[in-house]
């Protein structure tokens, strides 16, 4: 969720953010549909005291399987914004594309439906990126190189666009570019999700607003701080910057 949260923080530095992570039950990619739905509901409920103005689901796997259940519970009072693999913009050139995603998203009917809808006449290769989300979570350089290389080897040479169908992958876009030899443009969803969130709230971007917004972190429902692995990425370090001189650690105290 780091890339989406960072996009929201850049757009509205005065907004309070609650980052509800689920490290105790990761990875989600190999879990059943019902398990993913249960974890997504648990994460949203944990962030709900006080109830947030909006619930953003910055995860393709969670969105693919859980949006209906989340909206049934929280809407219309609280808008729920999901993350959709940006397949539509990637097809604009009409050239072959690849969609990198977790195993769960790659096998989902939802993603297949997006491809059928937006790329009916375009060659699309679905690449299940085994171990990549987990490698990003751990920030293990060797595991990252191996997982990115594995996915790159499964990506045909003629693709001109690669859809990053997991928001974890945004954090290592430079590694992906290097592995692909920069032969393909990368398409990510973070900025689009940010725009949709503000639209649903009836708010406008205001990047020059006072940086007074706080960042709270929940890890499987427990108050915590961003892990060191997250701080190693630019988006994580940006989120950890103090709001108007106060430390994020002061905002998120352990019980």
TrEMBL record:
Gene3D superfamilies in the cross-refs: 3.40.50.1860
Keyword Isomerase recorded: yes
GO biological processes: peptidoglycan biosynthetic process
InterPro entries xref list: Asp/Glu/hydantoin_racemase, Asp/Glu_race, Asp/Glu_racemase_AS_1
Entry GO MF terms: glutamate racemase activity
Keywords (A to Z) from UniProt: Isomerase
PROSITE patterns registered for this protein in UniProt: ASP_GLU_RACEMASE_1
PANTHER family: GLUTAMATE RACEMASE
Protein name: Glutamate racemase
Organism: Halostreptopolyspora alba
Lineage: Bacteria, Bacillati, Actinomycetota, Actinomycetes, Streptosporangiales
């Amino acid at each position: 969720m780091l890339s989406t949260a960072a996009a929201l923080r850049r757009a509205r530095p005065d907004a309070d953010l609650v980052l509800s992570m689920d490290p105790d039950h990761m990875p989600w990619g190999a879990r059943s549909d019902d398990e993913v739905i249960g974890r997504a509901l648990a994460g949203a409920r944990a962030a709900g005291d006080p109830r947030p103005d909006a619930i953003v689901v910055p995860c393709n796997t969670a969105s693919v399987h859980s949006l209906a259940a989340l909206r049934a519970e929280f809407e219309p009072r609280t808008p729920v914004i999901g993350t959709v693999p940006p397949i539509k913009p990637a097809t604009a050139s009409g050239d072959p594309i690849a969609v990198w995603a977790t195993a769960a998203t790659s096998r989902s009917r939802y993603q297949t439906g997006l491809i059928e809808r937006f790329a009916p006449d375009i060659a699309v290769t679905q690449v299940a990126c085994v171990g990549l989300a987990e490698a990003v979570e751990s920030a293990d350089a060797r595991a990252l190189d191996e997982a990115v290389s594995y996915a790159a080897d499964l990506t045909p040479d003629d693709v001109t666009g690669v859809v990053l169908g997991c928001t974890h992958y945004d954090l290592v876009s430079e590694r992906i570019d290097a592995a692909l030899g920069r032969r393909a443009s990368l398409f990510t969803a973070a900025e689009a999700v940010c725009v949709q969130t503000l639209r649903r709230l009836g708010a406008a971007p205001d990047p020059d607003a006072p940086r007074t917004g706080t960042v709270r972190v929940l890890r499987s429902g427990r108050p915590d701080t961003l892990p060191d692995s997250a701080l190693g990425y630019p988006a994580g370090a940006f989120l950890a910057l103090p709001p108007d001189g106060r430390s994020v650690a002061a905002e998120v105290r352990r019980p």
